[in-house]
Design a protein that fits this description.
Keywords: Oxidoreductase. The protein is mainly β. It is built from four helices and 33 strands.
Amino acid sequence: NNRNAVGERNISPNNVNSLTIKYVIPTDNSVSATPVTFNNNVYFPDWAGFLYSVDAKTGTINWKFKLSEKYLPQPADPQVICRDTFAIYPTEKIIVLGTQNSLNGGGGFVLAITLQGELIWRTLIDDHPFAIITQSPTIYNGGVFIGVSSTEEGAAAFSPDYVCCTFQGSFAKLDLRTGEILWKTLMLPDNHGKPGLYSGNSVWGSAPAIDPSKGLVYIATGNNYEVPPDIVDCVKSAKTKEEMFKCHDPKNYFNAILALDINNGDVIWAVITSPFDSWTVSCMPGVPNPENCPEPAGPDYDFAQAPLLVKACNKPGCPLLAIATAKSGVTWAINAATGEIFWSVESGPGWIGGGSMFGSATDGKRYFVAQSNSHKDNYIFEKPSRNSPPSTKGGAMVAIDVLTGKILWQTANPTNAELVAPVSYANGVVWFGSKDDNGHLYALNANTGDILFDFVTGGTVACGPSI
């Protein structure tokens, strides 16, 4: 999931500013998933609940199907959507995706369909009414690896008389050909469906990374919604962050980067990056159910992206690193074999909307991350790029040295808007989209951070480009 188009050689820093529109595909609503290209076709979902196959050369729609009408048990909620990037298994020509329900509930499904859009199998991976799939699947060696998230945070805030909370984040492996759940690992101690215990810890961003040589899959997790009363008491009485860390059950994998065994789902190691973080949407001002905000409330500093895997350097003895940036704005590099922290760096301001959100990229030497700065803090740069201002109250692109964790350059978003879209990299060019109303898409020189190309899409960009 390095978001690096390794084979791309046509678009470079020398010619990227000559790009022009080839065609525009009409959709029924916004598109936030990165499109997938295969066999000269483009596949993606939209927020109206449609799935698309489009001819990559002409922009002609090959097929378009409503998710709730064609693929789910009937009657189905028409508001069900897919927001993850499809995974395509080329040999068997299978597309795998997940579903996101509305606050009407319905549980989370994983689907396999043909390249022609016909259903192969459908698996209810979690029957909690607010379970959803927002993580993009990874297919490896006959297995589908995917995490489970939820909208229970929102239900806690907006559903009348809702008793919070019972959802349990998990990560699972399914059989690619049948959809059978081969294993499913909870990210917290089992609450057996009872509120007032451990809940939350969604697995919800980008796609799991796999190291075949070690037989490990790497993910990152979200925050707790609730923790048991004795844990709350312990946290309240703790005098230091170190004491807070010790309050939790060691299997409460919140705000964590983890490695799991791909064969059985056992947790091999976990790095928990926050001392405490219980939070729901009820903690936002003005919501109908403020009583479902935990006390104390955490900062909501979970991970909205899975770690990517990259070697620290090309010399013997350099470890493979699992790197991800949290909504705290802190980037973490973990030794992928041992779980030891290799380095961490505050790469931008944190807040509920980031920090960093839906995916970073690497060229093997540098780690490229979009910092959203959703709180509009005065973000002062350590290494502003040549044409960037020295600070911003908007988002910024950041390049970090993979070996040392040092910031190489920082480039402010010229629109001063947030950056929530995943980053993409190819052939010396870093791509990012802006959340401003006009929807700027920018291309940067990966070496310097200089802006090479600026295209106005006409609508907010929350989607990373496919190159």
